[in-house]
Protein backbone atom coordinates (compact mmCIF):
# COMPACT_ATOMS: atom_id res chain seq x y z
CA UNK A 1 0.00 0.00 0.00
CA UNK A 2 1.37 3.38 -0.90
CA UNK A 3 2.06 6.00 1.74
CA UNK A 4 3.29 9.56 1.62
CA UNK A 5 6.99 10.04 1.21
CA UNK A 6 8.55 13.25 2.38
CA UNK A 7 11.77 14.73 1.08
CA UNK A 8 12.56 17.10 3.94
CA UNK A 9 13.94 20.59 3.79
CA UNK A 10 17.41 19.43 4.71
CA UNK A 11 17.68 16.99 1.82
CA UNK A 12 19.62 17.29 -1.40
CA UNK A 13 19.07 14.48 -3.86
CA UNK A 14 21.02 14.10 -7.07
CA UNK A 15 19.16 11.36 -8.78
CA UNK A 16 15.68 10.07 -9.41
CA UNK A 17 12.57 9.34 -7.44
CA UNK A 18 10.17 6.81 -8.88
CA UNK A 19 7.39 4.57 -7.73
CA UNK A 20 3.88 4.52 -6.41
CA UNK A 21 2.53 6.72 -3.71
CA UNK A 22 2.33 10.38 -2.90
CA UNK A 23 5.33 12.61 -2.48
CA UNK A 24 5.90 15.80 -0.61
CA UNK A 25 9.06 17.63 -1.56
CA UNK A 26 10.43 20.34 0.67
CA UNK A 27 14.10 20.02 -0.15
CA UNK A 28 16.30 20.10 -3.18
CA UNK A 29 16.29 17.68 -6.08
CA UNK A 30 18.40 17.55 -9.22
CA UNK A 31 17.30 14.76 -11.44
CA UNK A 32 13.98 13.26 -12.26
CA UNK A 33 10.71 12.62 -10.43
CA UNK A 34 8.11 10.19 -11.74
CA UNK A 35 5.52 8.77 -9.39
CA UNK A 36 2.05 7.36 -9.70
CA UNK A 37 0.55 9.46 -6.94
CA UNK A 38 0.27 13.13 -6.12
CA UNK A 39 3.28 15.37 -5.76
CA UNK A 40 3.32 18.51 -3.64
CA UNK A 41 6.26 20.83 -4.06
CA UNK A 42 6.56 22.94 -0.94
CA UNK A 43 7.45 26.60 -0.60
CA UNK A 44 11.15 26.25 -0.03
CA UNK A 45 11.67 23.36 -2.43
CA UNK A 46 14.20 23.69 -5.23
CA UNK A 47 13.52 21.30 -8.05
CA UNK A 48 15.74 20.97 -11.07
CA UNK A 49 13.92 18.07 -12.62
CA UNK A 50 10.98 17.08 -14.75
CA UNK A 51 8.10 16.00 -12.56
CA UNK A 52 5.53 13.50 -13.77
CA UNK A 53 2.72 12.44 -11.48
CA UNK A 54 -1.02 12.07 -11.16
CA UNK A 55 -1.56 15.51 -9.70
CA UNK A 56 1.06 18.16 -9.05
CA UNK A 57 0.74 21.11 -6.71
CA UNK A 58 3.53 23.66 -6.71
CA UNK A 59 4.38 26.30 -4.14
CA UNK A 60 8.12 26.33 -4.63
CA UNK A 61 10.66 26.73 -7.40
CA UNK A 62 10.94 24.39 -10.37
CA UNK A 63 13.25 24.38 -13.36
CA UNK A 64 11.77 21.53 -15.33
CA UNK A 65 8.64 20.33 -17.07
CA UNK A 66 5.54 19.41 -15.09
CA UNK A 67 3.15 16.76 -16.32
CA UNK A 68 0.13 15.93 -14.15
CA UNK A 69 -2.23 13.34 -15.53
CA UNK A 70 -5.11 14.65 -13.46
CA UNK A 71 -3.92 18.20 -13.27
CA UNK A 72 -1.30 20.70 -12.24
CA UNK A 73 -1.84 23.59 -9.90
CA UNK A 74 0.58 26.46 -9.36
CA UNK A 75 -0.17 28.22 -6.08
CA UNK A 76 0.97 31.64 -5.02
CA UNK A 77 4.69 31.56 -4.44
CA UNK A 78 5.32 29.06 -7.21
CA UNK A 79 8.09 29.92 -9.62
CA UNK A 80 8.29 27.62 -12.60
CA UNK A 81 10.40 27.69 -15.71
CA UNK A 82 9.26 24.81 -17.84
CA UNK A 83 6.34 23.39 -19.76
CA UNK A 84 3.19 22.51 -17.89
CA UNK A 85 0.82 19.82 -19.05
CA UNK A 86 -2.23 18.42 -17.34
CA UNK A 87 -5.86 17.50 -17.71
CA UNK A 88 -6.56 20.81 -16.07
CA UNK A 89 -4.13 23.53 -15.16
CA UNK A 90 -4.66 26.10 -12.48
CA UNK A 91 -2.43 29.10 -11.99
CA UNK A 92 -3.18 31.27 -9.01
CA UNK A 93 -2.53 34.97 -8.89
CA UNK A 94 1.02 35.33 -7.67
CA UNK A 95 2.20 32.10 -9.23
CA UNK A 96 4.89 32.77 -11.81
CA UNK A 97 5.43 30.68 -14.92
CA UNK A 98 7.62 30.89 -17.94
CA UNK A 99 6.87 28.11 -20.39
CA UNK A 100 4.34 26.42 -22.60
CA UNK A 101 0.97 25.44 -21.20
CA UNK A 102 -1.17 22.64 -22.52
CA UNK A 103 -4.39 21.45 -20.92
CA UNK A 104 -6.09 18.21 -21.81
CA UNK A 105 -5.01 14.62 -21.67
CA UNK A 106 -1.81 13.98 -23.57
CA UNK A 107 -3.43 11.22 -25.54
CA UNK A 108 -6.02 13.59 -26.98
CA UNK A 109 -3.76 15.99 -28.78
CA UNK A 110 -5.26 19.20 -30.06
CA UNK A 111 -8.37 18.92 -32.17
CA UNK A 112 -8.80 22.66 -32.49
CA UNK A 113 -8.20 24.77 -35.54
CA UNK A 114 -4.80 25.15 -37.17
CA UNK A 115 -3.68 27.92 -34.87
CA UNK A 116 -4.32 25.89 -31.75
CA UNK A 117 -2.63 22.85 -33.25
CA UNK A 118 0.44 24.95 -34.03
CA UNK A 119 0.57 26.13 -30.43
CA UNK A 120 0.40 22.58 -29.10
CA UNK A 121 3.15 21.22 -31.27
CA UNK A 122 6.24 22.18 -29.22
CA UNK A 123 4.96 20.42 -26.12
CA UNK A 124 3.30 17.40 -27.75
CA UNK A 125 4.66 14.13 -26.46
CA UNK A 126 3.65 10.54 -27.17
CA UNK A 127 3.02 9.47 -23.57
CA UNK A 128 2.67 11.45 -20.38
CA UNK A 129 4.89 9.16 -18.31
CA UNK A 130 7.99 9.15 -20.45
CA UNK A 131 9.71 11.96 -18.57
CA UNK A 132 13.08 12.62 -20.23
CA UNK A 133 16.25 13.32 -18.28
CA UNK A 134 16.55 16.73 -16.64
CA UNK A 135 15.71 19.40 -19.11
CA UNK A 136 15.18 23.00 -18.29
CA UNK A 137 12.09 23.93 -20.13
CA UNK A 138 11.69 27.30 -21.80
CA UNK A 139 10.76 25.94 -25.17
CA UNK A 140 10.79 28.01 -28.30
CA UNK A 141 7.98 30.10 -29.56
CA UNK A 142 4.68 28.42 -29.02
CA UNK A 143 2.69 31.43 -30.01
CA UNK A 144 0.59 30.82 -33.08
CA UNK A 145 0.39 33.49 -35.71
CA UNK A 146 -2.73 34.11 -37.67
CA UNK A 147 -2.29 33.01 -41.24
CA UNK A 148 0.76 30.90 -40.42
CA UNK A 149 1.78 29.21 -43.63
CA UNK A 150 2.19 25.83 -41.97
CA UNK A 151 -1.38 25.77 -40.79
CA UNK A 152 -3.25 23.04 -42.56
CA UNK A 153 -6.62 24.71 -42.41
CA UNK A 154 -5.61 27.81 -44.36
CA UNK A 155 -5.27 26.07 -47.69
CA UNK A 156 -8.15 27.79 -49.46
CA UNK A 157 -9.62 31.27 -49.20
CA UNK A 158 -9.81 32.74 -45.71
CA UNK A 159 -12.60 31.13 -43.71
CA UNK A 160 -15.69 33.16 -42.96
CA UNK A 161 -16.07 34.78 -39.59
CA UNK A 162 -17.44 32.13 -37.30
CA UNK A 163 -20.62 32.77 -35.42
CA UNK A 164 -20.91 32.10 -31.72
CA UNK A 165 -20.03 28.55 -30.82
CA UNK A 166 -22.14 25.97 -32.53
CA UNK A 167 -24.53 23.85 -30.58
CA UNK A 168 -22.71 21.09 -28.82
CA UNK A 169 -19.35 22.81 -29.17
CA UNK A 170 -19.43 24.00 -25.60
CA UNK A 171 -20.08 20.50 -24.36
CA UNK A 172 -17.25 19.24 -26.51
CA UNK A 173 -15.02 21.96 -25.05
CA UNK A 174 -15.88 21.08 -21.50
CA UNK A 175 -15.29 17.43 -22.24
CA UNK A 176 -11.92 18.20 -23.73
CA UNK A 177 -10.77 20.27 -20.83
CA UNK A 178 -11.68 17.64 -18.22
CA UNK B 1 9.65 11.14 13.85
CA UNK B 2 11.86 11.62 10.85
CA UNK B 3 11.68 14.72 8.69
CA UNK B 4 12.38 12.67 5.63
CA UNK B 5 10.51 9.47 4.92
CA UNK B 6 11.01 7.31 1.89
CA UNK B 7 7.84 5.27 1.96
CA UNK B 8 7.30 1.73 0.81
CA UNK B 9 6.46 2.07 -2.89
CA UNK B 10 9.16 4.60 -3.67
CA UNK B 11 12.61 4.01 -5.17
CA UNK B 12 15.33 6.61 -4.97
CA UNK B 13 18.39 6.27 -7.13
CA UNK B 14 21.28 8.62 -6.73
CA UNK B 15 23.14 10.55 -4.07
CA UNK B 16 21.14 11.63 -1.10
CA UNK B 17 22.58 14.19 1.28
CA UNK B 18 20.70 15.06 4.44
CA UNK B 19 20.92 17.48 7.34
CA UNK B 20 18.20 15.69 9.20
CA UNK B 21 16.74 12.30 10.17
CA UNK B 22 15.96 9.91 7.36
CA UNK B 23 13.54 6.98 7.56
CA UNK B 24 13.72 4.48 4.74
CA UNK B 25 10.84 2.11 4.15
CA UNK B 26 11.25 1.89 0.39
CA UNK B 27 14.23 1.36 -1.87
CA UNK B 28 17.43 3.36 -2.08
CA UNK B 29 20.22 2.77 -4.56
CA UNK B 30 23.27 4.93 -4.60
CA UNK B 31 24.70 6.79 -1.65
CA UNK B 32 23.33 8.34 1.51
CA UNK B 33 25.18 10.85 3.62
CA UNK B 34 23.31 12.13 6.64
CA UNK B 35 24.41 14.38 9.47
CA UNK B 36 21.70 12.86 11.59
CA UNK B 37 19.99 9.54 12.30
CA UNK B 38 19.22 7.06 9.54
CA UNK B 39 16.68 4.34 10.12
CA UNK B 40 16.24 1.51 7.61
CA UNK B 41 13.00 -0.23 8.47
CA UNK B 42 11.89 -3.77 7.87
CA UNK B 43 10.90 -4.11 4.23
CA UNK B 44 13.32 -1.47 3.05
CA UNK B 45 15.99 -2.34 0.52
CA UNK B 46 19.15 -0.28 0.43
CA UNK B 47 21.98 -0.77 -2.03
CA UNK B 48 24.18 2.09 -1.01
CA UNK B 49 26.98 3.20 1.23
CA UNK B 50 25.55 5.03 4.20
CA UNK B 51 27.14 7.60 6.42
CA UNK B 52 25.16 8.86 9.41
CA UNK B 53 25.39 9.93 13.00
CA UNK B 54 23.66 6.73 13.93
CA UNK B 55 22.10 3.98 11.87
CA UNK B 56 19.39 1.50 12.75
CA UNK B 57 19.04 -1.50 10.46
CA UNK B 58 15.73 -3.36 10.41
CA UNK B 59 15.67 -3.92 6.69
CA UNK B 60 18.22 -4.91 4.14
CA UNK B 61 21.43 -3.00 3.41
CA UNK B 62 24.09 -3.93 0.91
CA UNK B 63 26.84 -1.38 1.25
CA UNK B 64 29.39 -0.02 3.64
CA UNK B 65 28.13 1.93 6.61
CA UNK B 66 29.84 4.55 8.69
CA UNK B 67 28.38 6.10 11.82
CA UNK B 68 29.93 8.74 14.02
CA UNK B 69 27.93 7.38 16.93
CA UNK B 70 26.41 3.92 16.66
CA UNK B 71 25.08 1.20 14.39
CA UNK B 72 22.27 -1.09 15.59
CA UNK B 73 21.47 -4.15 13.56
CA UNK B 74 18.01 -5.34 14.65
CA UNK B 75 16.43 -8.77 14.51
CA UNK B 76 15.29 -9.32 10.96
CA UNK B 77 17.78 -6.80 9.69
CA UNK B 78 20.40 -7.76 7.18
CA UNK B 79 23.68 -6.01 6.51
CA UNK B 80 26.21 -7.00 3.88
CA UNK B 81 29.10 -4.59 3.98
CA UNK B 82 31.69 -3.12 6.26
CA UNK B 83 30.82 -1.23 9.40
CA UNK B 84 32.75 1.62 10.85
CA UNK B 85 31.29 2.89 14.13
CA UNK B 86 32.37 3.42 17.68
CA UNK B 87 29.42 1.43 18.96
CA UNK B 88 27.72 -1.54 17.38
CA UNK B 89 24.98 -3.92 18.41
CA UNK B 90 23.90 -6.97 16.48
CA UNK B 91 20.63 -8.45 17.71
CA UNK B 92 19.84 -12.11 17.83
CA UNK B 93 18.17 -12.88 14.51
CA UNK B 94 20.05 -10.28 12.52
CA UNK B 95 22.22 -11.20 9.55
CA UNK B 96 25.58 -9.67 9.04
CA UNK B 97 28.46 -10.23 6.68
CA UNK B 98 31.35 -7.82 6.59
CA UNK B 99 34.20 -6.27 8.48
CA UNK B 100 33.88 -4.19 11.59
CA UNK B 101 36.10 -1.29 12.52
CA UNK B 102 35.34 0.19 15.92
CA UNK B 103 38.49 2.18 16.13
CA UNK B 104 36.89 5.35 14.82
CA UNK C 1 -12.12 43.28 -46.86
CA UNK C 2 -14.09 45.68 -44.78
CA UNK C 3 -12.24 47.48 -42.09
CA UNK C 4 -14.14 48.32 -38.97
CA UNK C 5 -12.38 50.66 -36.65
CA UNK C 6 -14.18 51.94 -33.62
CA UNK C 7 -12.66 54.30 -31.17
CA UNK C 8 -14.48 55.92 -28.30
CA UNK C 9 -13.55 59.49 -27.61
CA UNK C 10 -14.02 59.08 -23.88
CA UNK C 11 -12.94 56.27 -21.58
CA UNK C 12 -16.34 54.65 -21.68
CA UNK C 13 -17.14 51.06 -22.27
CA UNK C 14 -18.37 49.41 -25.42
CA UNK C 15 -20.17 46.13 -25.86
CA UNK C 16 -20.06 43.95 -28.89
CA UNK C 17 -23.31 42.09 -28.47
CA UNK C 18 -24.02 38.44 -28.91
CA UNK C 19 -25.15 38.33 -32.47
CA UNK C 20 -22.50 40.71 -33.72
CA UNK C 21 -19.64 39.61 -35.88
CA UNK C 22 -16.77 41.85 -36.83
CA UNK C 23 -14.18 41.09 -39.43
CA UNK C 24 -11.51 43.70 -39.01
CA UNK C 25 -9.51 45.48 -36.38
CA UNK C 26 -10.83 47.15 -33.30
CA UNK C 27 -8.91 49.94 -31.60
CA UNK C 28 -10.21 51.91 -28.65
CA UNK C 29 -9.55 54.04 -25.64
CA UNK C 30 -12.16 52.56 -23.35
CA UNK C 31 -13.15 49.17 -22.14
CA UNK C 32 -14.66 46.55 -24.39
CA UNK C 33 -16.90 43.66 -23.57
CA UNK C 34 -17.14 41.13 -26.36
CA UNK C 35 -20.11 38.82 -26.51
CA UNK C 36 -20.03 38.21 -30.22
CA UNK C 37 -17.30 37.27 -32.63
CA UNK C 38 -14.30 39.16 -33.90
CA UNK C 39 -11.71 38.13 -36.41
CA UNK C 40 -9.28 40.97 -36.38
CA UNK C 41 -6.81 42.40 -33.91
CA UNK C 42 -8.11 44.19 -30.85
CA UNK C 43 -6.06 46.99 -29.33
CA UNK C 44 -7.47 48.82 -26.34
CA UNK C 45 -6.06 51.12 -23.73
CA UNK C 46 -8.84 49.93 -21.46
CA UNK C 47 -9.89 46.52 -20.24
CA UNK C 48 -11.12 43.66 -22.36
CA UNK C 49 -13.70 41.11 -21.30
CA UNK C 50 -14.41 38.16 -23.56
CA UNK C 51 -17.68 36.65 -22.39
CA UNK C 52 -18.74 33.05 -22.35
CA UNK C 53 -19.84 32.31 -25.90
CA UNK C 54 -17.73 35.02 -27.46
CA UNK C 55 -14.89 34.31 -29.81
CA UNK C 56 -11.92 36.36 -30.90
CA UNK C 57 -9.68 34.96 -33.59
CA UNK C 58 -6.81 37.45 -33.51
CA UNK C 59 -4.25 38.99 -31.20
CA UNK C 60 -5.52 41.21 -28.42
CA UNK C 61 -3.89 44.02 -26.52
CA UNK C 62 -5.50 45.69 -23.54
CA UNK C 63 -4.91 46.83 -20.01
CA UNK C 64 -6.57 44.00 -18.10
CA UNK C 65 -8.02 40.99 -19.87
CA UNK C 66 -10.67 38.59 -18.60
CA UNK C 67 -11.49 35.61 -20.77
CA UNK C 68 -14.56 33.43 -20.35
CA UNK C 69 -14.94 32.66 -24.04
CA UNK C 70 -12.53 31.84 -26.79
CA UNK C 71 -9.40 33.65 -27.88
CA UNK C 72 -7.25 32.22 -30.62
CA UNK C 73 -4.37 34.59 -30.68
CA UNK C 74 -1.82 36.23 -28.44
CA UNK C 75 -2.91 38.14 -25.38
CA UNK C 76 -0.84 41.12 -24.30
CA UNK C 77 -2.03 42.87 -21.18
CA UNK C 78 -0.33 45.78 -19.47
CA UNK C 79 -2.14 44.66 -16.34
CA UNK C 80 -3.62 41.31 -15.34
CA UNK C 81 -4.89 38.40 -17.40
CA UNK C 82 -7.57 36.16 -15.89
CA UNK C 83 -8.53 33.03 -17.79
CA UNK C 84 -11.76 31.63 -16.37
CA UNK C 85 -12.82 28.02 -16.22
CA UNK C 86 -14.95 28.05 -19.36
CA UNK C 87 -12.37 29.78 -21.50
CA UNK C 88 -10.44 28.38 -24.38
CA UNK C 89 -7.23 30.17 -25.18
CA UNK C 90 -4.51 29.31 -27.63
CA UNK C 91 -1.63 31.67 -28.01
CA UNK C 92 0.98 33.49 -26.01
CA UNK C 93 -0.18 35.17 -22.82
CA UNK C 94 1.60 38.15 -21.39
CA UNK C 95 0.65 40.30 -18.42
CA UNK C 96 1.84 41.55 -15.05
CA UNK C 97 -0.22 38.88 -13.35
CA UNK C 98 -1.66 35.80 -15.03
CA UNK C 99 -4.18 33.47 -13.49
CA UNK C 100 -5.86 30.43 -14.96
CA UNK C 101 -8.86 28.70 -13.40
CA UNK C 102 -8.90 24.93 -13.42
CA UNK C 103 -11.14 23.73 -16.19
CA UNK C 104 -9.91 26.24 -18.72
CA UNK C 105 -8.63 24.90 -21.99
CA UNK C 106 -5.26 26.50 -22.59
CA UNK C 107 -2.70 25.83 -25.24
CA UNK C 108 0.09 28.32 -25.55
CA UNK C 109 2.86 30.06 -23.78
CA UNK C 110 3.14 32.15 -20.66
CA UNK C 111 6.11 34.43 -20.10
CA UNK C 112 6.18 36.04 -16.69
CA UNK C 113 9.14 38.19 -15.72
CA UNK C 114 10.93 36.70 -12.75
CA UNK C 115 14.13 34.99 -11.69
CA UNK C 116 14.46 31.50 -10.34
CA UNK C 117 16.48 31.10 -7.15
CA UNK C 118 20.24 31.03 -7.85
CA UNK C 119 20.42 27.29 -7.07
CA UNK C 120 18.24 26.70 -10.11
CA UNK C 121 20.17 28.97 -12.39
CA UNK C 122 18.48 32.27 -11.74
CA UNK C 123 20.32 35.46 -10.99
CA UNK C 124 21.45 35.87 -7.40
CA UNK C 125 20.21 39.00 -5.67
Labels describing this entry:
heterotrimer, A: mainly beta, 6-stranded parallel barrel, globular, C: mainly beta, 10-stranded parallel sheet, 16 strands, elongated
Helix content of chain A: under 10%
Largest sheet of chain C: 10 strands, parallel
- The span between the termini of chain C is 53 Å
Please state the structural category of chain A: mainly beta
β-strand percent of chain A reads: 35-45%
Output the strand order for the largest sheet of chain A: 6-7-9-12-10-8
Task: Give the SSE order of chain A as H and E letters.
Answer: EEEEEEEEEEEEHH
Report the strand count of chain A: 12
Describe the structure.
The complex is a heterotrimer of chains A (178), B (104) and C (125). Chain A is mainly beta and 178 residues long. Chain A has helices at 114-120, 169-176; strands at 4-7, 11-19, 22-25, 28-35, 38-41, 46-58, 61-63, 66-74, 79-81, 84-86, 89-91, 96-103. Chain A has one domain (4-176). Chain A has a six-stranded parallel beta barrel. Chain B has one domain (4-95). Helix content of chain B is 0%, strand content 65%. Chain B contains no helices and twelve strands. In chain B, strands 1, 2, 3, 4, 5, 6, 7, 8, 9, 10, 11 and 12 form a twelve-stranded parallel β-sheet that branches. Chain C has 125 residues and is mostly beta strands. Chain C has one domain (13-120). Helices cover 0% and strands 48% of the residues of chain C. Chain C has strands at residues 13-16, 21-23, 26-28, 31-34, 37-39, 42-44, 48-50, 55-57, 60-62, 65-67, 70-72, 75-77, 80-83, 88-94, 97-100, 105-111. In chain C, the strands form two sheets. In chain C, strands 2, 3, 5, 6, 8, 9, 11, 12, 14 and 16 form a ten-stranded parallel β-sheet that branches. Chain C is elongated, with a radius of gyration of 16 Å. The interface between A and C is large, with 52 and 48 residues. Strand 12 of chain A pairs antiparallel with strand 16 (105-111) of chain C, so a sheet runs across the interface.
